[in-house]
Amino acid sequence: MIVAIGTDHGGFALKERVLRAVAEAGHEPFDCGAMTLQPGDDYPDYAERVANAVNSGRAARGVLICGSGVGISIAANKFAGIRAAICHDTYAARQGVEDDAMNVLCLGGRVIGPELAVELVREFLGAEFKAFDRYERRLRKVQRFEQGPSAG
Ligand code: RB5
Fold this sequence. Notes:
The chain is of the alpha/beta class. The chain has helices at residues 12-24, 43-56, 70-76, 90-100, 114-126, 133-145, and strands at 2-7, 28-31, 61-66, 84-86, 104-108. The protein has a single domain (2-145), classed as Ribose 5-phosphate Isomerase B, Chain: A (3-Layer(aba) Sandwich), CATH 3.40.1400.10. The chain has a five-stranded parallel β-sheet with strand order 2-1-3-5-4, with helices on both faces. It binds D-ribose (RB5).
């Protein structure tokens, strides 16, 4: 699958290793920048690029990295169709896909090191959504929130 990867300055140090991990796992990395370390850049710009890549079908999944993983996951989740989460343990990186159809993995470049990042990417990309009725039902409920607020 094609995997879109984006990072601001806070995650930039992890980017090359993550690109390589995607390729090593047999997938095609799609580099959404930053192409060079830019200390003043803004994580929403990379969240937007990766969200657009996934929502347009240009990429099947995404990996976003900022300093903590927090800002870039908040930004990515503003896009309908994106289900992004910070996962700094392999259980969540796999289970988030299997149960919750997570399609964007978010990492904190100032929180974890490259070897854990590689394992998280491997788990994320190796997992598939399990189409059990209860998972489909929960996903539909989440997707309903994308239509706007409900009465209650
Ligand atoms: C940028 O300095 C930093 O705030 C950003 O990468 C991220 O950690 C935000 O959540």
